[in-house]
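Example 3.2
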Amino acid sequence: MLQYLVFVAAFAVLFGCLMYIRSMFKGGAKPNRVTWLMWAIAPFIATAAAVSSGVGWAVLPVFMAGFSPFLIFVSSLLIKKAYWKLTPFDYTCGILSALAIILWMITDNPNIAIIFAIAGDALAAVPTLTKAWHYPKTESPWPYIVGLFSASTSFLAATMGTFSEYAFPIYLVSIDTLLIFSTLKSQIFSKF
């Protein structure tokens, strides 16, 4: 029964995405387009690899981890004031992320594909993690809070106990936790 939480989590991720887009419209969140584009691609690859190795509904949170950033990336193209100025550092991370994805395409092994997808996603996260750390007001914590919940539901739906079933959700829990802390650290520490 608990495995059905992945569907609740999918709707929650969509809610978090819409909250972020709403913040963009209000001039709050300013997404790093490199991060959000690459965040869309890597989970889509991990989803394809996991499905090809027999993973069932446990992959839904990973898919949503790509679909939500895709919507945010597209929205950032439509809302002219909602973007973060890209630097050579951002482009370098994007290129390294793309390289990891290209390396995945060279292999037929789903586990290696997932490793490269995680590397690509993590490299894409670095610019936003850095931005959130230094300028937390340019990020909304909602997609990361909901993403943490969503990724956690993968463990409830897991049935095979394999690397391909657990690897990307473990990574997502880790990166979402770091992003939540980076985005909310000033609020957390102001209470001490």
